[in-house]
Amino acid sequence: MKAASSVQGGWTLALLGLVRYRVVVILVATLVIAASFVPGFFEARTLSLGLDRAATMGLIAIGLTVVLIAGQLDLSGGAILALSSIAAVGLQGQLGQFPAALVGVGVGLAAGCFNALLVAVLRINSLVATLASMLLFRAICHLITDSRPVSGTDPFFGIPLTQPLVWTLSARVTIFLVLLLLLHLWLTRAVVGRNLFAVGSNAASASASGIRSRWYLFGAFVFSGLMAGIAGVTFGIASNTGSPVFGDTIVLTSIAAVVIGGTRLEGGVGSALGTLGGLLTLAALTTAMEYQSIPAYVQDIVTGAILLLLILLDRLTHSKRGVDVSLTTLARRLSRTSAGSQPKEMERTIR
After folding, report:
1. Which one, of 71, 66, 67, 321, lies nearest residue 202 by Cα?
2. Rounded Cα–Cα distance for residues 175 and 58 (Å)
3. Among 21, 101, 139, 225, which residue's CB has the most CB atoms within a 10 Å radius?
4. Domain range enclosing 103
5. Which residues cross the membrane (predicted)?
């Protein structure tokens, strides 16, 4: 009886470990499925093209990772992307290409400051504040362009952004990966990065312990706006176009990628590498389904189902917070379970 309960406990712990590392499991499963449907999926050229397509969404997701860890939400990233692309492309004739690009990044930074003012200073709920700013920024895009796309002065100016820079990775992908690595180091190595998790878990308790929670919230929204601005500038320059309809659905997809990567909507939990895993999962799924000519609405259904499944699994691990499911503990417990079951099997064989 004791051996049976030990075996059951071992398998329960193994299941919890599987749930704990669900991001890795679902990423590996997605890559295997994609490779089985797409010939040459793991070839360097195919992987680099997939990453290049996901780079713009990845820049938005980097900013959202910080905002979600802080326990907030930012819906305005797509509108900021559109506004920054219009500034970076539309002002090339007046300012020149590089100054216009800097203005586009500045537009994203200013939009992030506006969101930060609404949430951190005026203390408006982040969902309501960024929804209002999203509508405002999108309206400004339509107003200044008369609802028409704008073109740059040189269609070849943005080609280097999509050309291989490191190995087969384009400059746009390299920018994304470097920023993601810097965010990972900041969240894991810097004291201010670790304080962000405390703010997201409980802002009031963090403030009581001496952490200036409002400033962290302010910085999170400024950073999110900056990332959206960089995404808009790189996307606009690469396509030599700025449009008021750019990024109309990119925020929802980016939030899905961040949540799939293990960041909790309630705040206090998340990682940059998890966001990368979520992005790669969505990119692999999209590539495989597009290769099979699966309609876009079916792709949305699959993405939504995966998102719901991972949220349910997150609830399961959250309810078992006191259980140690590290890889070392899992290996030790499973080895004990196997060793404990061997004498029982020998006893039954002798009888």
Report:
1. 71
2. 10
3. 225
4. 2-350
5. 21-42, 54-71, 101-120, 127-145, 165-187, 215-238, 244-262, 269-288, 294-313
